[in-house]
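Each field is set out underneath.
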Amino acid sequence: MATIDLTEASFDETILGNDIVFVDFWASWCGPCRQFAPVYEQVSEKHPEIVFAKVDTDANRRLAAEANITSIPTLMAFREQVLVFSQPGALPANAFAELVDAVKGLDMPAVHAQIEASTTDAGTESA
């Protein structure tokens, strides 16, 4: 699957409706963004089972602000609606391919249990 463009209207639906979603926050004037774009596209073509999306931060300023984007490009990965990776900067092709494999290989029951435990602990500390 080629990359798709996300907007405020489609962002939540895309994250909620897919098992794995990678999101590249970018802008047309950003040199590192333009450098990373072909890498992102190449990796997306090797994984048709994963959604690879792009958010133009100039056209979607509010969405970028809600996602706390302070530097571009920023790459995010969601697995089962959980943000499991967020990092600014362009990744080399091999590092991005390794990241995709790592996200695919996550033990999501353990991740959900860890989130549940931290939420429970946070609630206990404030009581």
Summary: The chain is about 50% helix and 20% strand.
